Amino acid sequence: MKLNNETIEKFQRIYFEEFGERISKEQAQEKFLRLANFLRVIIQFPAKKLEPKSSQSSGLTKPLQMVE
Hints:
Layout: H1 5-19, H2 25-44, E1 49-52, E2 64-67
Antiparallel strand pairs: 1-2
Helix pairs in contact: 1-2
């Protein structure tokens, strides 16, 4: 997938604002595509609900555990 120049330049600007480092167009494209793929995986991953454990915890807060 090839990104257009506007998208690459916008990503370069955002990257610089966040990390204070300038990156090349090639680096921007690679990092953008990696980020997009990572987000695609997260979005497709089934959501799990966090609920407090009914545990022996004696504090004010209870630990959370994943439940399906």
